[in-house]
Amino acid sequence: MIRNDYLLPALLLSLFMHLLSFAPSLLPVIAVPPEPPPPLQARLQTPPPLPETVPLQLPEPPPATPPPAEPRPAKPPPKKPAALNWQHEIRRQFQEQQRHGDFYPAEAIARGLQGEVLVRLLLTPDGSVEAARVEESSGHRLLDDAALKAVRALRALPADAPRETLLPVIFRLR
């Protein structure tokens, strides 16, 4: 059995011990300013001497001899301007698509939609369409999609076609 005469001093001792843990926060804190860092010191040293350089000497070029004169070939027949060649081929392919009913959507014709779509066209070296996107819309999603479809269907354009160009695709009702 526990005796009551030891209980009160034990409680007082426990209370005192718990209060001691709060004692440092109750005491005023005296702030000690930190020591300033030592001042920075720097000095420049003279660079080491550069090694002696040897002057650059280029070999003497061989004496120029004129190439032997070759006969000039006959003038080739005049070609159409490059713009006409590849543009003509695009027009021809668009007309072929129209003959098959693939160029001007039937729904756009029924709704009386007209407009012009400006398409950016990227070609591969063999003249196929690598990429196409609408740069300027006609204002009608149906015509924009039809223009992209028609441009992406182009095949085997002439070698003189530019690798990147803006192509106007015009939809007009007659």
Strand content: 5-15%
Query: How confident overall, as mean pLDDT?
Result: 82
Strand segment tally = 3
The H/E string reads: HHHEEHE
Query: In angstroms, what separates the terminal alpha carbons?
Result: 117 Å
Strand order of the largest sheet: 2-1-3
**Biggest sheet character:** 3 strands, antiparallel
Total count of helical runs of at least 4 residues: 4
What's the arrangement of secondary structure elements?
Layout: H1 7-26, H2 82-99, H3 106-111, E1 115-123, E2 129-136, H4 141-152, E3 164-171
Antiparallel strand pairs: 1-2, 1-3
Q: What tags apply to this protein structure?
A:
174 residues; alpha+beta; 3-stranded antiparallel sheet
Could you characterize what this model shows?
The protein has four helices and three strands, in the order αααββαβ. With 174 residues, it is an alpha+beta fold.
Task: Summarize the entry for a quick read.
The chain is of the alpha+beta class and 174 residues long. The chain contains four helices and three strands.
